[in-house]
Amino acid sequence: MLERLFINHYQTAAVILSGIGLTNLLLQRNLIKKIIGLNIMNSAIFLFLAAKGNINPLPSVMALAGIVITLSLTAFALALTLKIYEDSGTLNIDEALLKKTKEQEELEAIIEQAEEEEIFS
Amino acid sequence: MNEDTKEILKKFFDWVVGNGPRPENEVVSPEPPPDLPFTQRPRDRYSRFREATLRERYNQWLELHGFHIFSILYSALSVLMCVVIVSLLLATVAELPPTLSTSQRPSPAHNEVIRRYVEHAPRETGAQNIVAGLLHRYRGFETFGESAVMFTSAVSVLMMLGASRRNKFNRELSPKDAASGRNFLQRGPPDEPILREAAPILIPVILMAGCAVIINGHISPGGGFAGGAILGMALILAANAYGFGRVHEFFDERAFVISTSTALIVYTLSCGYDFFTGANQLQTFIPNGTIGNILSGGLILPANICLGFMTAGTLYAFYVLFSEGDM
Question: What does residue B57 show for φ and ψ, rounded to 5 degrees?
Answer without folding.
Answer: -65, -40
